[in-house]
Every structure is written in C-alpha cells, then in structure tokens.
Description:
There is one protein chain. By secondary structure, the chain is an alpha+beta fold. It is built from three helices and five strands. Helix 2 packs across helix 3 (104-125). The relative contact order is 0.13.
Amino acid sequence: xxxxxxxxxxxxxxxxxxxxxxxxxxxxxxxxxxxxxxxxxxxxxxxxxxxxxxxxxxxxxxxxxxxxxxxxxxxxxxxxxxxxxxxxxxxxxxxxxxxxxxxxxxxxxxxxxxxxxxxxxxxxxxxxxxxx
Length: 132
C-alpha cells in the first residue's frame, strides 16, 4: 500500500466589532479594513468552515519527504473552486462576442448584461482585460 501525508485545513472566523465615525458607509468600511488593531478579537467556532485538503505527499511520513501530488478537485476548498470557476467563466465572457445563433435583437439585449457582469468581475478580481 502507498503511504500518503494529507494536510487538511479549515478556516476559523475571527471577528471584532468596533464603532467608526465616518462621512459615509464606504468610508466607515475602509476604516474598519485599514484598522490593524485586533486586541479585542473573538473566535467564531460555531461558523468554522469546511475541512479541505491543502497538501498531499506520496510515499512519505512527513510533508517535506516524498512526492508532492496534485489535490483532486473534489477535495479542494469549495470557495476556491468557485473562484476558479468564476475566473474561467469571466474569460469565456470576454471572448469576442458573436451572435452564434442569437437573433440580432437577442444579442443586443445580451451584450449589455455581459458587460455589466464583466465590470463586476473586474471589481472583484481587481483585473481588467479590456486590452484583450
């Protein structure tokens, strides 16, 4: 039988609640994000995330030994898998849009929605591929 070292992880939410005075909701959120002080943090054990595989090594007793292996997709973190899918879908939406069987009217209705979705994708990822 083959020996595997499997590293698993789960995320434990750590939170804090503080009052910020600001001109707007966005300014208050920015203050909270920029605030480096965490001396009043709390652990939220009840909402810890899923357990997922973060490393696999074959024929090993420790991670620094053996051969590192690719993690099968089904055992990776769900949110990361969704993010990877999001990236792939955004790339597909960026391909030169052609009606491909859609009537010109349907295509004209579809295109603005795609452009809005791509703008949202750009805002989330911080990446714009307008030059592609």
